Amino acid sequence: MIKFFRKIRYDLMEKNKTGKYVKYAIGEIVLVVIGILIALQVNNWNENRNFRKTQNRYLSQLEIDIDSMHFQYKGIAQYSKAYHDNA
Prior knowledge:
The protein is mainly alpha-helical. It has one domain (about 1-85). Helix content is about 95%, strand content about 0%. It contains two helices and no strands. It has helices spanning about 1-15, 20-85. It is rod-shaped. The relative contact order is 0.05.
């Protein structure tokens, strides 16, 4: 593929077709820019996906911690009530 583009570039330069060569060069630049933009978009998508995974993991752990604390406080409240009822 690279040889194909190189051949086109050399043919245009040898035949002194400056206008066509400039169009070709601009086309190459546009392709490179499009490739970079696609790579940046894929990178952003991957970072967002990783962030959501981490966020979900933290939220799951937070839910587990809250349930555990609720169970502990419920036990403490029952113990405290029983202690005061017997006193």
